[in-house]
Amino acid sequence: MHATLPLLEVTGFPALHRGKLETLQVNLGYLCNQACLHCHVNAGPTRKEIMQRDTVDCVLDYLRVTKINTLDLTGGAPEMNPDFKYLVRAARDLGVWVIDRCNLTVLELPGHEDTAQFLAEHQVEITASLPCYLEDNVNSQRGDGVFQASIRVLRILNSLGYGQPDSGLLLNLVYNPLGPSLPPPQQALEQDYKKYLGEHYGVVFNHLFSLANMPIQRFGSTLISKGQFDSYMDLLHGAHQDDNLETVMCRSLISVDWQGYVYDCDFNQMLKLPLRLNGKPRVHLRELQDVKLEGCSIVVKDHCYGCTAGQGSSCGGALA
């Protein structure tokens, strides 16, 4: 695995400061049943990092104190954490909106047969990765058989009400380009997804989020191996839009790793660039309960252009 941070240290990216904190994004561990080529987490079946119950309780304590309205659960496959349901139940009891970033196929694993029903019962918003609506493209990026497994799970979710009009159960899909290119316009691509998946598989969903691939971890290492890293960075720099700076996700979000340490975003977490506070090398979530983060500076490096290039990119899709 090639390290990308040394290639991202020098940057001309504009300075950023946090606005009102609205979302706590929590990585429940890097364990995943897939090992996708575009994964910026380098997650996979052999990863051992899993958030423990005491850290999960720390997350809940932070939600109680701060009254943050959204808990965004990610991984790896967050559902593979043994305390996933415990955390979801407790967060929903606090009135917190919960988002599950799901790879779909995890819901077919032994022991997870009831997870889809659980998510529906607790009205958890599902944001599911499906990097293309064509079978060959998905399998080339995520592994043989992944597309058909994803379709099976999407049909199950639809049968529970997800993606259906007026159900209140939100089902979003996530698109990533197959290689070193920017996503096409999100709105037009969403219509293509809905038409194709509806006509060929009877699948419905609410929204499509298009995300640019970040030049870090597995994807960044692949770019280096293929001699494409510099050209991809040139593409991101050339497509930068200042207007996107107002709505980049790090301005309203903090990211928590499996040990409870805090970062400005999930991408900084993967680069081991912790949130800066009072000169400390890193800050644990339990230290932030009485700290106002609004106005604090955000750590930026050259990969940040991945969020501001073109239509922009965030955990909620395009910014423009």
For this entry, give a set of tags:
320 residues; alpha/beta; TIM Barrel; 8-stranded mixed sheet; 11 helices
Would you give an account of this structure?
- By secondary structure, this protein is an alpha/beta fold.
- The chain has one domain: Alpha-Beta Barrel (TIM Barrel).
- The chain is 32% helix and 12% strand.
- The protein has 11 helices and 10 strands.
- The strands form 2 sheets. The protein has an 8-stranded mixed beta sheet with strand order 7-6-5-4-3-2-8-9. A two-stranded antiparallel ribbon has the order 1-10.
- A hairpin with a 5-residue loop joins strand 8 (253-256) and strand 9.
What does the oligomeric state look like here?
single chain
Provide the CATH architecture. Alpha-Beta Barrel
Order of helices and strands: HEEHEHEHEHHEHEHHEEHEH
The geometry reads as globular
- Biggest sheet character: 8 strands, mixed
Number of strands: 10
- How large a portion of the residues is in β-strands, by DSSP E? 5-15%
Through-space gap between termini = 33 Å
